[in-house]
Amino acid sequence: MATKNTESEKKTNHARDAQTAGFKKPVQPSPELAQIVGSDPLPRTEVTKKVWAYIKTHHLQNPANRRNILADDTLYAVLGKKEVSMFELTKLISGHLRPI
């Protein structure tokens, strides 16, 4: 049996949709980041997926501590460090994204 949403539930659902919309908005990558993810605008979530795909394809995770990424020359241009933790990754990448 279907239930009707109350007015307060509708407002809550709308607020949740508005919060996630920011992740879905396309952003423009910098020229350095574009070498990894492409130059077309894409959502932040896709940027993160493509960066992780690049890291895994090029075997850039530290074998001794897989939470750390060992940057090659292309990734170093984006991160500015030879080794970063996966927790720093998103913060460093966000500096290379501009809203459209």
TrEMBL record:
SUPFAM superfamilies on file: SWIB/MDM2 domain
UniProt region (Disordered), positions on chain: 1-41
InterPro entries per UniProt: SWIB_domain (IPR019835), SWIB_MDM2_dom_sf (IPR036885), SWIB_MDM2_domain (IPR003121)
Biased segments, Basic and acidic residues type: 1-17
Domain of life: Bacteria
Domain DM2: 22-99
Listed name of the protein: SWIB/MDM2 domain-containing protein
